Amino acid sequence: MEPVSRWAENFRWGGVSVLAYKENGTHFKSITRQVVFEGDPELPCQWRYFEVEEGGYSTLERHEHLHVVMIIRGEGRCLVGDRVHDVRCFDVVRVPALTWHQFQPVSGEILGFLCLVNVERDRPQLPDADALAALRAVPAVAAFIKT
Ligand code: MN
Fold first, then answer.
1. Which of 42-75 are b and which e, b meaning 16 or more Cβ less than 10 Å from the residue's Cβ?
2. Of the candidates 123, 58, 144, which has an alpha carbon nearest to the alpha carbon of residue 135?
3. Cα–ligand 1 centroid distance for 124 (angstroms)
4. Which of the following is catalytic: 45, 78, 89, 115?
5. Does the residue 14 lie in any domain?
6. CB of 91 within 8 A of CB of 43?
7. How far is ligand 1, taken at its centre, from the CA of residue 15, in Å?
8. What is the model's pTM?
9. In sequence order, which residues have a C-beta less than 8 Å from that of residue 100 and are 6 or more positions away?
10. From residue 37, how far is each of 47, 119, 130 by CA, in Å?
11. What is the pLDDT of residues 60-99, one digit of tens each?
12. Of 13-22, 33-42, 100-109, minimum mean pLDDT range
């Protein structure tokens, strides 16, 4: 890979493919993925850029691995645990282990964010009926989440 992956306008980078968010699954909507940094044995993490269109959402999920997210396009809202936060460009969001999370753009916006993860990571878990009921016990969370 070239040392510089050139910004190619409109949140695309030279040599970086625009991929489906996940290879399969139905618990998300209108979201793409670009792997900006694939990981290296000496730096075993990946830097992904996700973009969520108006009306879309990332999977409501949790896992053992951590995320550090930086918003770099648009405005949105995110669930982290049992709270919903407003986020905008250059805000940094830390998602701890085993913490429910979901990202959505606000009306009229595309939400784009970089997400840092370990290369070695566990598979995300989806909420079962009990977990959904627990999440929905918080009114602001109930009003926010999409599945
Ligand atoms: Mn996640």
1. eeeebbbbbbbeeebbbbbbbbebebebbbebbb
2. 144
3. 6
4. 115
5. yes
6. no
7. 25
8. 0.94
9. 60, 61, 62, 79, 80, 81, 82, 127, 131, 135
10. 5, 11, 37
11. 999 999 999 999 999 999 999 999 999 999 999 999 999 9
12. 13-22
Alpha carbon of 137 to ligand 1 centroid (Å): 22
- Domain-embedded: residue 39: yes
Task: Judge whether 115 counts as a catalytic residue.
Answer: yes
Residue 37's nearest CA partner among 20, 61, 71, 13 is: 13
Q: How far is the CA of 12 from the centre of ligand 1 (A)?
A: 22
Q: How far is the CA of 139 from the centre of ligand 1 (A)?
A: 22
For residue 65, give its domain range.
7-144
Q: How far apart (Å, rounded) are the C-alpha atoms in residues 29 and 147? A: 9
Q: Are strands 19-20 and 75-80 parallel, antiparallel or unpaired?
A: unpaired
Number of domains in the chain: 1
Asked if the structure places residue 1 within a domain, the reply is: no
For residue 2, is it within any domain? no
CA 5–ligand 1 middle distance (angstroms)? 25
Is 113 in contact with 71 (CB distance < 8 Å)? Answer: yes
Report the CATH number at residue 99. 2.60.120.10
